[in-house]
């Protein structure tokens, strides 16, 4: 009888320990440890998108080959051209904000998603965009941002900046 009670106590102790680990989130699995944005993959290119309203106008936006605009960038990720497109958008469309100052003070549009860009994106997220302020560029940040609208002259190929908009793409 003594052995049966000891076995029950051991089982209850094991179940209690397992419940405690589960409740405090100390279990590890790939679903629980992978950030949600990782499903998109890092931005590895840019695309020119139009808003469908003006002929010869376009926006240059970070993208992922085969995945369209659903991509992410965070510290030390993203291709040079994707990071530069983001940095130029911040410099152009948010020029008088601390976000643009952080880009300028860390080397300008330098192709690197470093500390200055993380800080700039985090500031924009918290103060202008109304999305989670984690410093990670992803679909929510893209959708909330203003992007420079450029016009390409069909006669000579010259490009001019028009204004900053939040296009529906």
Structural shape: globular
Largest beta sheet: what is the strand line-up?
1-2-3-4
| Major β-sheet annotation | 4 strands, antiparallel
Helical content band: 40-55%
Q: SSE order, as H and E? A: HHEEHHHHEE
Tally of extended strands? 4
Helix tally?
A: 6
Portion in strands: 5-15%
Low-confidence stretches: 17-34
Label the structural class: alpha+beta
- Radius of gyration, in Å, reads 23 Å
| Cα end-to-end separation | 71 Å
Query: Would you tell me the overall average pLDDT?
Result: 84
Structural features, described:
The protein is of the alpha+beta class and 169 residues long. 41% of the residues lie in helices and 15% in strands. It is built from six helices and four strands; from the N terminus they run ααββααααββ. A four-stranded antiparallel β-sheet has the order 1-2-3-4. The model is unreliable at 17-34 (pLDDT under 50).
Topology, please?
Layout: H1 2-24, H2 30-33, E1 45-49, E2 57-63, H3 80-93, H4 98-105, H5 115-129, H6 139-144, E3 147-152, E4 159-165
Antiparallel strand pairs: 1-2, 2-3, 3-4
Helix pairs in contact: 3-4, 4-5
